[in-house]
Structures
1.
Amino acid sequence: MDVLVMIVAAIVTVIAVGLFVRTVVGFVRQFRVGKSINRTDKPAVRTLTLLKEVFLATRLKQKPVGPIVAASHLIVLIAFGVLFFTLVTAYGQLVNPDFALPLIGHWPPFSYLIEILSWLMVLAILILIGVRVTRRPNPQEPRKSRFFGSTMWQAYYVEITILAIGIFVIALRAAEYARGSVQGEEFINSNFPLTGWIGQNWTGLSLEALATLIMLLAFGKILVSMAWFVTVAMTPTMGVAWHRFLAFFNVWFQRNANGKPALGQLEPIRYDGVALDFEKLDDFPDDIALGVTAMTDFSWKALLDFSTCTECGRCQSQCPAWNTEKPLSPKLFTIAMRNHAHAISPWMTATEEERANLDPALIELAEKPLVGDDGVIADDILWSCTTCGACVNQCPVDIAHIDHIVDIRRSQVLVQSEFPTELNGLFKNVENKGNPWGMNASGRNDWISEVDFDVKVFGMNGEDTIPEDIDYLFWVGCAGAYEDRAKRTTKNVAELMNIAGVSFMVLGEGETCTGDPARRAGNEFLFQMQAAQNIEVLNEIKATKIVVTCPHCLNALKREYPQLGGNYEVVHHTELLNDLVKAGRLTPVNKIDQTVTYHDPCYLGRHNQVYNPPRELIGATADSFVEMDRNRDKSFCCGAGGARMWMEEKLGTRINQTRGDEAIATGAKRIAVGCPFCSVMLNDAVNTRQQEEGRAVGVEVVDVSTLLLNAAKS
Amino acid sequence: MKIAVCVKQVPDSWAEKKLRDGDSLLDRDSVEAVLNELDEYAIEEALQITEAQGGGEVVIVTMGPERAGEAVRKALSMGADSGIHLVDAGLAGSDAAATSYALAKLLEGRGFDLIMFGSESTDARMSVVPSMVAERLGLPQLTFANKVEVSGGTVTIDRVGDNGIETISAATPAVLGMIERSNEPRYPSFKGIMAAKKKPVETVSAADAGIDMSAVGSAGSWSQVNSFAARPPKAAGVVVQDEGAGGVAIAEFLDAQKVL
Ligand SMILES: Cc1cc2nc3c(=O)[nH]c(=O)nc-3n(C[C@@H](O)[C@H](O)[C@H](O)COP(=O)(O)OP(=O)(O)OC[C@H]3O[C@@H](n4cnc5c(N)ncnc54)[C@H](O)[C@@H]3O)c2cc1C
Ligand code: SF4
Ligand code: SF4
């Protein structure tokens, strides 16, 4: 029997390792099909980031999942690696029941490590199984579960394997103890702190019986391990298992070497790995592929992203689209891409000639469009994204959902002309009128006639660069110039700067849309036209310091224009005003005696990490402040980002209402915001409730600057 | 089916427009020029007709200076197949009648089944060129068209007039004038923009088109501009403070304006 066991173990191992290696090679070949993108800058920083994310669980311990899961996961992660030694030992034990690893086998520190880790691993995996079981989709509200749509059997299988391995290790050590004890070995006294007590029950068995027990346990352990290798090798789409290997690479190769989430600026549109400049349109090849039309248009990093997804659903739990019954979930999107990539992997990795000879069914599948009724994902999935960044911020393995979603939108808009019709109007207005509302450029200065102090407009006195004595160029923005609520913010900020003695100048008709909505909607061409025009003006007049009231302008000017040669120091008005208050140049004299809550705009908070200045300003102007449940980097989108402001919200419930209700529920009478779009969206939500009897009475949505102006003036 | 769509390049509709002192012509250089918005509906309709028929040809036709070529490219980027551009310094200053004469000469004998127009240009807004061209070519005219249907040799439209909607039809070849409610003009895709750069645009001189130069241009036009004056600035409006009798005040105001 011994020999039989050894032969079976050897055969199983060879098959398992062979299959595993074959699948790993398959992965590498698939990723190599992806378009090139440079992700190897600052290797030392990247390595440090990897170590931090793995061993300090910096991403994993984020709410809402929290430290217990993060700690359990870290234990399993480490134990799963270290306990590999016990697998090696198990092979030895097939041959010789008294086998121990040379040098360390009976070295107490090593034994302690193994024993502590095995018990901790059993405990941790039981916690994780418990979490999965209790959070599994329930039949009443399945979508509420972050595991909705995750392949549950795969996760349970992985977890049970880990549990089984833990139990095998403990049982094996107990048996080793018993055999050592019967043999009167010395080492048993110092090597079995946590398993000896079990082994003591078995010391009545004969040496032969114990030898058989050890061999059978070792054999069982090997079989369980090899079954796992075979299963994951046969299932390359098993993200929950593969992330064990891929996550390290995915984290190392993430967009920002320092581990900052892939937010703020979008990845530029690339062709053959080179960022495209639409000014050189005439040099483009005629059949240039823009954005992602087919799986093979993704970068290798995108393909690696898809395969790494562990289906944990943290992104899904945060997604405003998903939480308002829309078909988009960043997790399901990622899974759909990954499954399709692997389904057509043989086609992706084949050469043109080889492709022709492939199975017709495979060719048909490979030709399936990524988007559309008969596509890999429905149009509504693609267009529901508000680019709020909650998913990217949450993902423990640093998947950059927004970059991939926008890359597909680029193809839909630029190549296929398949996009929501409302965007037609947006694009035309931005292109022809220089603003999303289609208003006249001459209206950009209308607000100036509504204030009773002087506002300097660039060029009025014949200047051709911004004069030395001007502190800031005040970028008013389209909303700030044309939209009533935002116009009020513009006037507030101008007045506050005026009071504080900050000299500023506006561009007036020289301003045009930054291109943000066009870029988020996938129209990179229009974005670049707008950006080029603005950068030309800003560089020509030598603008250096710019203040904005719109977080979307902030993001474009500060984070996206450097991609096209525009480098400015850009601040949001809440940052500037907060500095002015701190410096004593603005003094809130009369605090308002109402409770205020604050909604973090996605493009100010998550995308640009401005969380404190608005809160400090509110603290300086109001008596009491209350946070919503979801705040700061867990803030819930108002629904307007990603050009969704310009599209109808036809599916599910309304995102702005969900957020508005959350704000109203705090009991605050003032809902402060720092973004013109959030302002419109939340104001709508509050109005809707106010029209219902007795709801949200006296609640007002205001820009933070309004609070400060009231406090500074009265 | 071969369709001609006549388009005009106009100054951006919102820009402030001025006439030049010297020749009383519109100062076009100082403002951004765009494709006449209403013409986009005609282009879209033409494209939809050929798409529905699974084939055909859409030809963009314009009369205008060198720069008007941009409007043709824009139309081509939406998906039209080719362009014809009539350029001649002698054509400058043509009135509606002269324009229609020149366009008729240009279109004549090219075998178009449909000749489509926007209902009016956003600059001069005469809204007569389509009818005049039809008259000159002796073709039936279907103007202010909303819905268009083509089957066999017949084209049927819903004509939106002051008194309601009439359904009228005519045998092709025919002239159509489209209104802005007819469809949603497409946004040119990037692919369309790239493809447009390669599409053929035939540049035609007045002589090539057989145009009698004495019938066109400022001098050849039947109507002449003798003098012009800037529009007087808007007078301040009357503000009625509603102190209970607001309705009456408004009624009196309307009565005084002879509106009631
Ligand atoms: C100051 C001023 C005074 C004027 N006075 C007169 C006047 O006294 N009498 C007079 O007849 N006209 C006058 N005109 C208008 C004249 O110059 C028109 O621009 C010209 O006749 C074309 O007519 P429209 O633009 O009004 O065309 P509309 O009839 O409004 O245009 C309808 C459609 O015709 C087509 N179309 C028009 N022009 C062209 C073109 N060049 N190429 C291809 N398609 C075209 C387009 O499809 C357009 O949508 C005056 C213009 C100005 C600026
Ligand atoms: S960016 Fe926001 S809306 Fe888009 S998928 Fe991520 S969480 Fe959902
Ligand atoms: S994308 Fe990231 S957060 Fe979302 S399920 Fe996958 S691993 Fe989890």
2.
Amino acid sequence: MTVNGATPVGATTPEEAAFAQEVQRGEPILEVRDLRKHFPLTKGILFKKQVGAVKAVDGVSFDLMQGETLGIVGESGCGKSTLAKVLMNLEPATTGSVKYKGEEISRLSGAGLKAVRRNIQMVFQDPYTSLNPRMTVGDIIGEPFEIHPEVAPKGDRRKAVQDLLDVVGLNPEYINRYPHQFSGGQRQRIGIARGLALKPEIIICDEPVSALDVSVQAQVINLLESLQGEFNLSYMFIAHDLSIVRHISDRVGVMYLGRIVEIGTDLEIYDHATHPYTQALLSAVPVPDPTARESRDRIVLTGDVPSPANPPSGCRFRTRCWKAQEKCEREDPALTVRAWLEGRARHDSACHFAGERENV
Amino acid sequence: MSTVADQGRPAREEPYTGPLLDVRNLHVEFRTRDGVVRAVNGVNYSVSAGETLAVLGESGSGKSVTAQAVMGILDMPPAAIPEGELLFRGRDMLKMSKEERRKIRGQKIAMIFQDALSSLNPVLPVGFQLGEMYRAHRGSNRKDAKAKAVELMDRVRIPAAKERVGDYPHQFSGGMRQRIMIAMALALEPDLIIADEPTTALDVTVQAQVMDLLAELQAEYHMGLILITHDLGVVADVADKIAVMYAGRIVETAPVHELYARPAHPYTRGLLDSIPRLDQKGQELYAIKGLPPNLLRIPAGCAFNPRCPRAQEICRQKVPPLAEVTEDDGTPLAGRGSACFFWKETLHDG
Amino acid sequence: MPDRNEPIPDDHDPLRNINPTDSDHLDYVGQQGLAVEQETLIEPDPAKREQARSLWGDAWRDLRRRPIFLVSTVLIVLLILIAIFPGLFTGTDPRASDLINNYLRRPDWTDFFGGGWFGYDGQGRSIYARVIYGARASITVGICVTLAVTLLGGMAGMAAGFFGGWSDAVISRITDIFFGIPLLLGALVLLNAFSVRTVWSVVIALAFLGWTQLARVMRGSVITVKQSDYVVAGRALGAGTSRLMFRHILPNAIAPVIVVATIALGGYITAEATLSFLGIGLQDPTISWGVDISSAQKVIRQAPFVLFFPAAALSITVLAFIMMGDAVRDALDPKLR
Ligand SMILES: Nc1ncnc2c1ncn2[C@@H]1O[C@H](COP(=O)(O)OP(=O)(O)O)[C@@H](O)[C@H]1O
Ligand SMILES: Nc1ncnc2c1ncn2[C@@H]1O[C@H](COP(=O)(O)OP(=O)(O)O)[C@@H](O)[C@H]1O
Ligand code: SF4
Ligand code: SF4
Ligand SMILES: [Mg+2]
Ligand SMILES: [Mg+2]
């Protein structure tokens, strides 16, 4: 699944070996096509009148493969959480389609939705607010079984909850404790246990480690990775920490103002980015290596992210792009592979002038 | 201290050559109904003009409390400073009168907080808030203050400063607001700026802009800068020297290059190892086991001992002092110190 | 193997780095201590440790060992007993007036539980007997109005906050309209419509005017709680409306309602008193603390005790309910246990 250091002996470099592995991918388990979520902006108190819309997610398409981890990165406000919520059916999609194993799920409700919910679960960002402070850990992790009684018969539930606690590395005796009696990292484990309870196939992690201490982040990342192997999970991993995303992801999608602007394997994105925004994002990441600080070639973006209620015409990034030309204002660049790209640069990128940076 | 001889004389009469700020053996505790929270347990650090000191540590390690003690903005009680010296230009601020301290605060030492939105008054235009600094401290009139405000906003590179002085805080983006906070800290041209997690709430692209700006202005004004953060990356980019904090103590100090290349404390080592590296992809990340300690009950001996892979019996019995770190042959390494009995071994395996 | 074990030995408190700046939603001062207390408080009986716990069960366990709760419970039980069986506590007829012998006679401390214990009022009636017999009307008004407004207001507030949209618009507008009416003035007008005014007509009038206050509090509280991540997490699991409302939102939204309701209880008893004073609430043959307080005002200079005893009874009752409300609210917050 993931590429590791076991290079076949012979002429191949680790890079090429990795490339060979990238090609074999699983079946898509989630297919997202042209998904949009617009929040209406209204005026007036009694008679509301729509005056516009926040285009939080505005035409996102991608596939999530069985057993893979798809990382999603982007600045805050670019629509990552909204995308997660729409996939979870927590917010209705405005338009577009989401297919789970070939079945359309974006407009489900009632029993159909409940059945799908079992298979797609979520881990939230803030371990301090995502657990009900007035429920015991046993009740929190056991709640999925109460909602979906078919998963675990009544008598076995307590046992099932204790097993889950054990799986995520918490002492099963803590079943009667309340969330505030745990540290952030431990709470996040409780959240993960809740997400695992229904034996889902997909887990959407919305910034699962952002709120944790540095020394605890690694513990949670390791847990997520070992669970993926154990339960054959597919992850959509949203984060703004690019080095963690790189560590855990097989593929990475970069979002800007409600769109995916570039998507590809981790190597394609991190070492062969072709979209100017991805390049700027990567160059801005603080590197924990002082020797690199003079030699680094930073692209410092000017200006702010435009409002999602009123995105620029044509390419959305053009207001901050140093490569922007007149064409960028007229034409919205499609997310495709440009003909002139070669090698690992040949991956989907939404730029008219996609190309690697010369001086990397 | 014997340098207190110059009391009563104006501060900047003869050029002062020592460090700008010298924190010595600072202790801060909070007396709560559950017991005494020992938030800071003997912190030592110093900053000179033109120097950037980064204070690195996980949340709860006492970084902010130390900074607040230096600023003199701790609420006492519940806080108390049972021990320690805070030497600013050689004079202990803890022994100064309230009035003297108030003069230092803002004029000589300024602070930038993590959350710019809640540090700015939402109902006043930012230009007014900037100008306020001059009106309150320098007695400028309204017109001058406004002109100064525009100048400051220009300084921190806010586009179209003239048109935006009348805007309210919510009309600016997060990065812009942080710039305004920087402008406010700069207003009275302080000698020292303490920035408490100034970019933690910002996106990477904006983070880079703000850090660059801060570093540039620091060089321009030749100020001392204390940069508090939990992000190893941010530190590497701008700091000259680093102090690593754990459970209210400095466990390691070093010039920035050396800390990353050869850590001399197991905690620093663990932090560096837990950063995902390229060649580790698909493997398990190194994780420091366990949790940071409860400050109500700090473990006996070395506070890190329950989590330390190197811990021995002695670590549970004695508190390791911040020892000088030297090469094998005894050549001292300038500015390096480690509060670990086994710094030598750690340095070697690094 | 991944290092899954983050052991929490009992001397190693998980509640460390709770930090005011980093997690402002936590009351860390309280936090620091909880674990300490928790070790001794929540796990009293190792044999029972294995039983599943629930919030209400834990709250009850916790309440039973709170002195404030015990004291207030004893008081309230006593008050209710007095309200139901006043005859048990005094043999004197509260309506018997003995003008010649007892006009404004001072309290006689030796007359333990007797007619003259608290002295006599302007019409020569035993104040002690009147305080005992007055409990029924006052407590009935207090408890019934509070229950009614909490239920009505709570449900309306919950519906408005939870469903939002037009149901919120309608309910909020109604509460706004009611909010403009002063309680007493409104009750005055309403009670005028009743030809015979009993305790129940007062209850109905006060409840009709009072529910909007609770609805507002509940609505605000529900709206805050509804946005929390754990409610979203519940929805993500497929939880239905009633589970979200009663498992997730209600226990987290109820605290301010309890506080406001218990404080309002005193207000209703006093409102009844004021109405009686204005001659529009209960009328003289009915005995209530309110009626007595209002009639005592005429003689307050000569005989302050005439006012003192019914007023003290009223204060103790109000205090008992406020203390109980506080204890219940704290017990329902695991962080404060
Ligand atoms: N319920 C909502 N109503 C209106 N706008 C919203 C709502 N939720 C999110 N938004 C807007 O949508 C955009 C994307 O938000 P979000 O998905 O949370 O971003 P991210 O998770 O990438 O930081 C933001 O501009 C945000 O203000
Ligand atoms: N007012 C207070 N009362 C009790 N404890 C406090 C108070 N302020 C801070 N602390 C404690 O001091 C410790 C250090 O806090 P702080 O310096 O803010 O950490 P950080 O390194 O994250 O900035 C924390 O564990 C916190 O619980
Ligand atoms: S399409 Fe144009 S504006 Fe957009 S990223 Fe490419 S070069 Fe920049
Ligand atoms: S003193 Fe001992 S416990 Fe502390 S860091 Fe050094 S080796 Fe580890
Ligand atoms: Mg988000
Ligand atoms: Mg802090």
